[in-house]
Write a structure and sequence with these properties.
The protein has one helix spanning 67-70; strands spanning 17-20, 24-26, 30-36, 51-56, 63-66, 79-84, 93-95, 101-108, 129-138. It is an all-beta fold. The strands form two sheets. A five-stranded mixed β-sheet has the order 2-9-8-4-5. It has a four-stranded mixed β-sheet with strand order 1-3-6-7, with no helix packed on it. The radius of gyration is 18 Å and the shape is elongated. The relative contact order is 0.26.
Length: 139
């Protein structure tokens, strides 16, 4: 005898979050930040075209950090990069000067429907939003 069981579940999109581990970093520090996006967590790493744009006031072009390069597609550890004031940005090193702001940015294309504006919308299908965090470089 065949038996079937079914259950309904609801799922809602959320806004991604990015946060530096500190508000200030010195030029000699390793900079770390956390990223979380519920919709992309658990997807196979070859399905994650997630790239973070990292830049400073002194280097607007900055560097790109990829989830695949970091092998952190499940977001379990912090992403990291380094700062330099002696050389240009390259690889995982960002050019900065003391007093600069540093930025990490990602564009979230999986926004929740928010027609009533409760979480910063209204968002509709096809919308996207830049998710940014900012820290300061000290001496």
């Amino acid at each position: 005898e065949e038996k079937f069981l079914s259950k309904t579940a609801t799922f809602g999109w959320n806004l991604a979050t990015i946060s530096f581990s500190q508000d200030e970093f010195s030029i000699n520090d390793k900079v770390q930040f956390k990223f979380y996006d519920k919709e992309s967590r658990g997807l196979a790493k070859d399905k994650l075209p997630i790239t973070f744009k990292v830049y400073s006031d002194s280097d607007k072009a900055g560097i790109d950090l990829s989830v695949q390069d970091n092998e952190n597609h499940k977001y379990k550890k912090s992403y990291e990069f380094f700062l330099t004031s002696d050389d240009q940005s390259s690889g995982e090193t960002l050019f900065v000067k003391p007093g600069d702001k540093i930025y990490v940015e990602w564009e979230d294309y999986t926004l929740p429907e928010d027609v009533e504006g409760k979480i910063g919308g209204p968002f509709t299908k096809g919308d996207h939003k830049k998710v940014i965090d900012v820290a300061t470089v000290t001496k």
